[in-house]
Structure formats: structure tokens, C-alpha cells
Automatic annotation (TrEMBL):
The active site is at S163 (nucleophile), D315 (proton acceptor). CDD domains: Pat17_PNPLA8_PNPLA9_like (cd07199). This is Patatin-like phospholipase family protein. A motif (DGA/G) lies at residues 315-317. Belongs to the patatin family. It holds the Pfam family Patatin. It comes from the Eukaryota. GO terms for molecular function: monoacylglycerol lipase activity; phospholipase activity. A motif (GXSXG) lies at residues 161-165. A motif (GXGXXG) lies at residues 124-129. The keyword Chaperone does not apply.
């Protein structure tokens, strides 16, 4: 402990009462050294040592000025100490501390967002995607019954999907009618999931190749979207995908950078819709990856440059089969400007059936398809559990359990019949007397689904009515 009559070392280290260049953990020690011969100040120095330890790591220098101020235990913040205007000079007589009144600083929270955000999210699930397509038709008809004739792309602020759910979401964003989306399965399912004899023989060999080629799928996507680009979509979409080495990827026509001239966003907004659809639906085992030319910013010290790189993408269900978590995050960050207000976010999440697929006791190569199904189902359940806790009644999930296992690529008549029934449909005669699959809101399955859809529509209508009244 230094003698107060010889404070040269301390004097070199202290040039101002704000103690620049002195680490926080040394300040209490220096304070005690200066007051060791002044018993009347020792109690205060202990108080100072304690209050200093309570300060956050990023406390500013102004908060580290020596004082003995205290704050209530429930204040949730440290006091700000007012610096002396007189430089501290170390002499034989320890300096008197500057008295000040502690000032409490509380961060003012940003105002809560006023806008209600409505989002639509659709899971992946191969041919089981016909179920959410059917429910979108019921949803649209329910809106029209209430006089809302807008396309779904204008009703929902964000539309998100994974795999087949992403293809449906892109269709909604392009204002494709739900009836045409249903036909995607009834008329094209067998075409998409078909193999030539040569392909079947190849799959029997002890080498791994995807079960199907992508040509038929790409033909169907071209038929639906042509050469339209992401920037041509009428709605705001969020599409999940994944690189072959497991890095999540989001394709979106929402500029998340905040820079209107962002070259990366401009490049990806020019992606063809059908190419993005191929990326998100390239499920391992079923289809080969899709290559995309990606632009990235490469940093070399202070230098930055944009480089191009070809990246192979696979199904987004590998990391998040239920895209509701990604869509909710986008709603909070992009629309509500990072203010989390769960009572202002409304999520309609459409699943493709809660799978009952299991893996055998001794998994083998034949279980690969089952493993893909279980992986997608399990992460869908995980997202569902989290969002149910976060958003509670504002999170509407429609995902009936599958009575029996239906494979992701089952496109035969028997499988389609089961899927229609699970979606709440019955084979009923129409106005022309011909029978067809129709949603039956009176059936046990259809009734439960319809109640959820009608409640969501009612919530939407009531909120929009209230917002209109406020504007008037």
C-alpha cells in the first residue's frame, strides 16, 4: 500500500477524475489507496466498491466517477455519477469526494406497433400438400361470403412456405386460384412422382441416386409460373431452402437489408420463381439439388467486393418444415421494426398432416424415406409447440393427425382419396349431378377444420373494421 505522501505512481495513472485508460476493476482499489489514512471515508469506499461491482460491463466512464450514491434495489439500473469539473490532484491530503445526487436512467421502450399483421404459413409434405390447398379454397370462399373479394396475396402481409408448401405459397403470391393449386396434385401428382424403367433399375443398384428426376416437376412449375421472377409476385413471400452442407437459406421478395440499392437483394429478386420452387422442393432421396448463381459480399480488410458463386440447394424442410417461425420473425423484424408484440401478429399455419411414420428397430437403407418424413414432422412439431406458447390464441394451426401413414410421394388414386377425406372432403354430387370431392363442413373432420378457418376470418374482419373506424 503506498504512502499518501508519495503518490507519484498513482499520480501518473490519474490525470482526471473520470480515470481514462484505467480498467474498471482497478478503480475501487485506487480509491481505497487514496483513502487508507482517512478512516472516515473507508465506509464510503466499501460502498463505492460494491456499487462499482453492480455496474454493467458496458458502463460508460461517466458512470464510473467516484461517488457513494445508491439506488433502490428494484430500479433495474445503476446510478449515473456526475463528474467533478475540478481535476483530481493527488496530495498529502486525500481529496474530498464530489457530492452528487444519483440519477436513475431507464431506457424508454419503443411504442408498441399499431398495425395488425396477418401471415399465412404452409408446411412441406409432398403429395400431402393437397390438404392445405383444399383449405385455402375454403378460406377464400369464407372471405368472399363476408364481402372480402381481395386475392389472398393482398389479405396476408406475409406468405411463407417450405417445399410443396412453398410452391403453394408462390402460387398464392402469384394470385393462382386455390382450385388450380388443387389441380396441381390431382392432375400432375402422378406425373411429378413418376419414374422411367431405366430410373427404377438405377435405383436398384447399390449406388445412391435421387428416386426421381426433376424434369417433370420443372415442367409443371414452368406451366404455372412461366419465366416470372420473384419481383413479379403480387404478395410478399418467404421461401425456405438449405444448402447441401446444411446452411439455411431464405428466398424472399422482401428487402430485409433496409438499403433500396442493395445489389444482393436486387440479384435475388430477379430469380425465376420456378427456380426458387425447385430449390425449396429438392427433397433428398426424391429429387436432385438445384444450382443457383448467388452473389455475396467478400470482405478483405477494409475492402469489400461482390463475388459470384454457384450454390446447390435442397429442401427447406431439412431445417424448418413448418415455416411459421421464420415468417413470425420476419413480421417482427420487418413490419414491427423489432418490437415484439404477439397480440398484433396473427398466424394461420397449415400443416400436411401429423405423420405416424416410425423407424424400424434396426434401421436400414429402406428406412431412408421414413427418416426424411420423421425429420420434417418432428421439426414441424417443435415450431408448433414454440409458437403456441408465444402467440397463444393468435396462432391458428390446422394439422390433423394422419390415421395411417401416407408416403410423401404417394400419388395414386387410393392415396388421393385418403388425403381428400383427411382434409374434410366428401365425394358428393354437384349442381350438375356429377360427383366430385367437396369440402363438407358438417362432417366430423370438416367441422373442426372449418371452425378454425371461420374464426380466423372473423378475427380478420373485426380487426379491419376497427382499423377502418379509427381512420374515419
Amino acid at each position: 500500500m503506498p504512502n499518501p505522501s508519495d503518490n507519484s505512481k498513482i499520480k501518473k495513472r490519474i490525470g482526471h477524475p473520470m480515470f481514462p485508460h484505467i480498467k474498471q476493476q482497478h478503480m475501487a482499489k485506487l480509491y481505497n489507496q487514496l483513502n487508507v489514512h482517512n478512516p472516515e471515508r473507508m465506509d464510503d469506499s466499501k460502498k463505492y466498491t460494491k456499487s462499482l461491482g453492480d455496474l454493467p460491463d458496458n458502463a460508460s466512464r461517466d458512470q464510473l466517477i467516484m461517488d457513494t450514491g445508491s439506488v433502490p434495489s428494484d430500479a433495474g439500473c445503476a446510478p449515473i455519477y456526475t463528474p467533478s469539473t475540478t481535476p483530481l490532484v493527488v496530495s498529502d491530503t486525500p481529496p474530498a469526494l464530489v457530492s452528487s445526487t444519483p440519477v436513475l436512467v431507464t431506457a424508454q421502450p419503443p411504442p408498441p406497433p399499431q398495425k395488425h399483421v396477418f401471415t399465412l404459413c404452409i408446411d412441406g409434405g409432398g403429395m400431402r400438400g393437397i390438404m392445405p390447398a383444399i383449405w385455402l379454397l375454403v378460406l377464400k370462399e369464407e372471405f368472399e361470403k363476408r364481402g372480402i373479394m381481395d386475392p389472398l396475396s393482398q389479405i396476408f402481409d406475409i406468405i411463407g412456405g417450405t417445399s410443396i408448401g412453398a410452391i403453394i405459397s408462390l402460387g398464392v403470391g402469384h394470385n393462382i386460384h386455390p382450385t388450380d393449386l388443387i389441380d396441381l396434385f390431382n392432375k400432375n401428382g402422378a406425373k411429378i412422382f413418376s419414374r422411367t424403367f431405366c430410373r427404377m433399375m438405377t435405383n436398384l443398384l447399390p449406388i445412391f441416386k435421387p428416386k426421381y428426376t426433376a424434369e417433370n416437376l420443372y415442367d409443371v412449375l414452368h406451366e404455372k409460373f412461366g419465366d416470372l421472377k420473384m419481383k413479379d409476385l403480387q404478395g410478399k413471400v418467404v421461401i425456405t431452402s438449405c444448402t447441401r452442407d446444411g446452411k439455411p437459406k431464405i428466398f424472399t421478395n422482401i428487402n430485409t437489408s433496409g438499403n433500396q440499392d442493395d445489389p444482393i437483394f436486387a440479384h435475388e429478386n430477379d430469380f425465376l420463381i420456378k427456380d426458387v420452387a425447385r430449390c425449396t422442393s429438392a427433397a433428398p432421396v426424391f429429387f436432385p439439388p438445384q444450382d443457383m448463381l448467388i452473389k455475396k459480399i467478400k470482405e478483405d480488410g477494409a475492402q469489400k467486393e461482390i463475388v459470384e458463386k454457384t450454390v446447390s440447394y435442397i429442401d427447406g424442410g431439412i431445417w424448418i418444415n413448418n415455416p411459421a417461425g421464420v415468417v413470425a420473425t420476419m413480421a417482427v423484424t420487418q413490419i414491427h421494426k423489432r418490437v415484439f408484440s404477439p397480440d398484433k401478429i396473427h398466424i394461420l399455419s397449415l400443416g400436411t398432416g401429423d405423420s405416424t411414420t416410425t423407424i424400424s428397430d434396426m434401421p436400414a437403407f429402406k428406412d431412408i424415406v421414413a427418416i426424411v418424413d420423421i425429420t420434417m414432422s418432428s421439426n414441424s412439431r417443435g415450431v408448433d409447440n414454440s409458437l403456441t406458447e408465444l402467440f397463444q390464441q393468435n396462432y391458428t394451426r390446422i394439422n390433423p393427425p394422419l390415421v395411417e401413414s401416407i408416403k410423401l410421394d404417394s400419388a395414386n388414386t387410393k392415396a388421393l382419396k385418403k388425403l381428400h377425406q383427411l382434409a374434410g372432403c366428401e365425394y358428393l354430387p354437384g349442381k350438375d349431378g356429377k360427383k366430385s370431392w367437396q369440402f363438407d363442413r358438417e362432417s366430423p373432420q370438416g367441422k373442426e377444420i372449418y371452425l378454425k378457418i371461420s374464426k380466423f376470418v372473423e378475427t380478420y374482419c373485426n380487426i379491419k373494421k376497427s382499423e377502418q373506424q379509427l381512420q374515419d
